[in-house]
Amino acid sequence: MRTGRRIANPAAKALAGTFRADRHADIVEIATPAKSAPTQPRYLTKEAKLVWREEVDRVAACGITDADSSLFARYCTMEAVYRTQIAAGELPKAALLTELRRMAELLGIAGLRSRLARAGGTEAPKSSPFTVRPH
């Protein structure tokens, strides 16, 4: 995962009047069709199965495949724990919230920013003229 600021949506930048072609022209939305639907594992709890049924259409639309089934199952399990804690009036731990957000980003359901990437991201970052290099 790259460090630094998250990629901003160029459409939102254009609406705000802050779009710059030199900075934002190479940003594209990632849209990959699902090859096969994720398979629900048998070990999920009743609550996790409920989360699975609620979320499977959204994640399938974002392009997850059968290869992502175990990641999605872990997300459903953690989301079920989160919902149980909230319903009981407990405050969930920050680690649980952080992992839920990370998994949602990986699955493409964390919002528009999770589906943006720089086009041709294989190039090396440009070096700074202030970088000190050993001779």
How does this structure look, described?
- By secondary structure, this protein is mostly helical.
- It has five helices and two strands; from the N terminus they run ααβαααβ.
- It is elongated, with a radius of gyration of 19 Å.
- The longest helix is centred in the middle third of the chain and has 19 residues, at 69-87.
- Helix content is 44%, strand content 4%.
- It has a domain at 34-111.
Secondary-structure topology with pairs:
Elements: H1 10-16, H2 21-24, E1 27-29, H3 46-61, H4 69-87, H5 94-107, E2 116-118
Antiparallel strand pairs: 1-2
| Tally of helical segments | 5
Sheet with most strands = 2 strands, antiparallel
Q: Roughly how many Å is the radius of gyration?
A: 19 Å
Task: Give, in order, the helices and strands.
Answer: HHEHHHE
Strand content: under 5%
Quantity of strands, as a count: 2
Question: Ranges with pLDDT <50 over ≥5 residues?
Answer: none
Helix/strand class: mainly alpha
Short description:
By secondary structure, the protein is mostly helical. The chain has helices at residues 10-16, 21-24, 46-61, 69-87, 94-107, and strands at 27-29, 116-118.
